[in-house]
Amino acid sequence: xxxxIDKKTKIKYFIALHIELFLYSLGGICxxxxxxxxxLSFSFIFWYGLIILNLGVYAIVWQQIIKKLPLNTAYSNxxxxxxxxxxxxxxxxxxxxKWNMILGAVIVVIGVxxxxxxxx
Length: 120
What we know:
Helix content is 81%, strand content 0%. By secondary structure, the chain is an all-alpha fold. The radius of gyration is 17 Å and the shape is flat.
């Protein structure tokens, strides 16, 4: 259960949430690189090690964030990882960004804004 916090503290945790989601999204890059490696090769173990580290840090920080922010806000904001995934796919893997992907990401962001505003 969250406690009542002032607006400045809430903004601080909201920013921390988005930094955490950004870092969590980087795990997708590691996963894709690990998938290209031979099983149990050095590079495979390296990339999966980074994934485990990423998930460990994410789990700890996530627990601290949901102590302070409403669960509705925290979970709805996880959807912004879709936008990061589109960006990472284009930057790191040369994937095409299509108009329907951008439209979908915009709809997700609008949904997040609606949920966050409803919590205020």
